[in-house]
Write a structure and sequence with these properties.
By secondary structure, the chain is mostly helical. It is elongated, with a radius of gyration of 22 Å. The chain is built from 3 helices and no strands.
Length: 94
């Protein structure tokens, strides 16, 4: 969960961690060309690449693991209307 402020609302969550890496000259020059074309800072391109690559896949894996855990509970499931009425009844009973 990110921290938001009115000043940062347009740019998204406040960045709180710094990561440093070393690129080849060719990689960096290509990254600069892409940044110029897309009118974005290099840092934004790097964050987007991380999200699209390893972070997206890791989040998918974690969610699949959590879903398997939930499904292994063998919890009773009914149609939504019945479950909703049971939830409301339980809340009213106290």
């Amino acid at each position: 969960m990110g921290v938001y402020s009115k000043a940062k609302a347009k740019s998204g969550p406040l960045r709180t961690k710094r990561v440093q890496t070393v690129l080849t000259s060719e990689q960096y020059e290509l990254l600069l060309q892409i940044a110029k074309k897309k009118r974005k800072p290099v840092s934004a391109l790097v964050r987007e690449a991380l999200e699209a690559g390893c972070l997206k896949e890791e989040l998918r894996t974690q969610r699949q693991h959590a879903l398997k855990g939930l499904l292994s509970l063998k919890a009773p499931v009914a149609d939504w209307e019945k479950m909703e009425s049971e939830i409301v009844e339980g809340a009213m009973d106290g």
